[in-house]
Amino acid sequence: MAVQAQELHTVTVTLRDGKLIPPTLEVPAHTRFKIVIRNEGRGPAEFESRSLRKEKVLAPGATSFVVVAPLKPGTYDMFDEFHEKTATGTIVAR
Amino acid sequence: MTSALIIVWRESVEAILVIAILYAWLRNNDARAGLRWLGYGVAAGLAVAAMLGAAMVALHASFEWFQALILFAAALLIVQMVGWMREHGRTLKRELESGAHKALVSGNFAGLALLAAIAVAREGAETVLFLYGLVVEQSGSGLAAVGAGAALGLIAAIATFWLLSSGARWMSWPTFFRVSEALLLVFASALVVGGVDRLLDMGVLLAEAPHWDSAWLIDDARGVGNVLQQFAGYRARPDTYELGAWLGYWLLAFGWLNRARLLKHA
After folding, report:
1. How large is the ipTM?
2. In angstroms, what separates the C-alpha of A54 from chain B's closest C-alpha?
3. Closest CB from A44, A67, A82 relative to B201
4. Closest residue to A44, CB basis, from B133, B201, B235
5. pTM score, two decimals?
């Protein structure tokens, strides 16, 4: 699993106390890619994207990732469900 | 406050559905021993959820494999439980009273407890982490507000349980039995597809582009489509694995539940 996953195009998003850094992720369209998610906040966070159907709960200090199947060009949502008011962002596939 | 309410309620509603059905079924059969097992299961589930949440915080880990495999385990247990309820739905009361098949009955009660425990532990760990976050990040009036939201979420969850299990009373028993059997089987299909999604997230399975896009008709990101996604394994943009898992599940579940009839014809 690790071997295949490591060869993928990778972008990183950091969740920090109700902020998504960076708020916009650019990814290539029609290509499988991997989002590495770090939680650098004091409390737990839940990375979520409704349009990509991804959910990942992260304890403080935890790092994980999700692999995303090839996307059509377009804009997809992402947010931290535990800090929904402030932590919203977009994933742009082109 | 509202998001705390929604998170606590939503994370518990799946477990509540499963437990309310098992509870109503046992109560209708006067199966006191079974109710006790169900209680043990729920308690064990809460304990596992708390431990899992604590381990995630302490180890900065996400336990991806565990979270994927537990979904398949829960689906398997549901199909097994539905099969057992079907076979013994009418006779359990008598069997319990006469002490017949005691080992078989208590073995299945243990399975029932395990199912309840998994149902609670699975989403419970997330709630534990969420509540832990409230305590770490909030203070004063902020903490009071989200705390109140979480408490209301818990009350809403208990109300949902009460509604579901009293639903068993106003429906005729055969109807309730058929409806709950269908609900459990449909829900297990969602668990299987969800488990496949976890494996896709982990890169264990690598999917190509989806086969179609029915989001224009029913969008799985919101509303009815989102409920169908969570409870029936609906995907607006399914890939080969999700499609195969969903179809494979129904074939196997149907075949196993009807194996007696199918074998007779073979």
Report:
1. 0.90
2. 8
3. A67
4. B133
5. 0.91
